[in-house]
Every structure is written in structure tokens, then in C-alpha cells.
What does this fold into?
Amino acid sequence: MELDEEIRERLRRARSVVAFTGAGMSAESGVPTFRDAQTGLWQRYDPADLATPEAFERDPGLVWRWYSWRRERVAAAAPHAGHRALAEWEQRVPAFVVATQNVDGLHQQAGSGRVLELHGNIHRNICSAERGVVTEPVPAGADDQPPRCPQCAAPVRPDVVWFGEALPEQAWQAAIRAAGEADVLLSIGTSGLVQPAASIPLMALEQGAAVIEINPEPTPITERVTVSFRGPAAELLPQLLAAVG
Ligand code: OAD
It folds into this structure.
């Protein structure tokens, strides 16, 4: 990887680093992205049918079955060299935060200790009425319907953020703070189309951070970032870490 000397120096001197990640970060682990032209989930499915509170109200079984399918995909996935490079990077700087839009838990599996989940976690369930985390193991629902909350009998749903819903407040505030304090922000595998998360790299840029993008495709922020590397995360992140030394 060709790294401009000035960027290398900024990376070396960075005390505070944020890795902002999206679905492309998990692509090479076998978790499909949302918007890739051939393989993206939103090419085949309409988000309005599957990832909104209205969709769950209309047809809870359909949404539950779709998330069961995604859970199976995620359960079969393992972190790759890019996830491991980020976990290793954390060991080298005083403040390192992963702010992820992914719900698959692969950063934690790879050993990252400080992970802000901006869109929730697919492994967790919550009560759709009271929002409390359902810790009891949920038996498979009859006819593949969602199981019922043991407290109030409302249908259980995955603890993920759907379109039209607010981000988890604590994670969101912590991500804004981290972006504001970052010397370097890595924007990895995200199309940058879903707000408010997509504003995180620009917040860091405005505060003077070096913003480094890793993505095989250009995105809306490509022209604005400090440097953009065109390629896959599993390949480029270990190279970037090695180049920093
Ligand atoms: P997208 O599917 O919108 O974008 C995936 C990005 O990853 C694209 O820019 C790809 O070019 C890039 N990509 C693909 N393969 C890659 C690889 N091997 N290495 C690096 N990059 C790669 O996913 P997100 O930006 O995460 O929201 O989408 C944001 C949100 O939209 C998701 O969190 C989800 C979705 O609806 C919710 O579920 C709330």
C-alpha cells in the first residue's frame, strides 16, 4: 500500500482513532451487504417490508423469519483479517473506538474491546412493546411467528434499529464525542447513505481529523476525505496497519 509520508506521520502520531464501519466490513465474512449491486439485500427485498416498525406490525412472522435467516448467516460468519487488524490497532493507541452500523458482533468476536453499536445487535431480542431486553431463551414461535415476551406477551423482536427509529442514545452520543476527539477516523465499508450515522466521518473531518476511507467503490464522501483507498477491508486494513508500523 502506497502511503503518503504526511498521512503515515499523522497515523503514527494519532492518540485517538475511530473506526467507523458498515456492512462492507462484514462482506468478506460472508454477511451480505445492503446496497451492493449484485449481492445487496435491498436489491432482493424491500426494506419497507422487512425493516420498519410498520412492517413488523403488519406481518410479524415475515419479519421474524427474515431475521432468523440473517441470524443464521451471521452465526456462520467469523471475523476476518480486517476485523483482527482493528482489534490489534486498539492495543497500540490510547483511545480507539469502533463505531459500527453492523449488528453482527464480529468486531467483538475479533477482540475489539470498545465497540459502539449504532444500529443494535441481531443476537439480542427485545420486547416490541416495553423495549426491555428479553434475556430468557426465546423458543421458536409457532408457525415461525415471533415468540412472546414472558412479562407482557407482546411479540419479541430483534434489538436492531429499523428505518424511522432513533439510534440508541448512549452509543450515538459516545460516537459523536469520539468523532469530535479523533485524530484519525477510518471509514470502512459503508455507502454513507443512511443518516444519522453517515454524518460521523464528516463530523471528524470538520474537527480536523484525518479521514481515511476503505471501500472498493466510491461513496458520497470519497471526494471530501483525506485519502480514499479503493479495495476490500480484509486486504487493506492489515496493510494499513503494517504501513503505520
Ligand atoms: P451498504 O450495503 O449500504 O454499503 C456497503 C458498502 O460496503 C458499499 O459502499 C460497498 O461498496 C462496500 N463494500 C462492499 N464490499 C466491501 C469489502 N469487501 N470491503 C470494504 N467495503 C466493501 O451498508 P451500510 O453503509 O452499512 O441499517 O448501510 C447502512 C445501513 O443501511 C445499515 O446499517 C442498515 C442498512 O439499512 C439498518 O439496518 C438500520
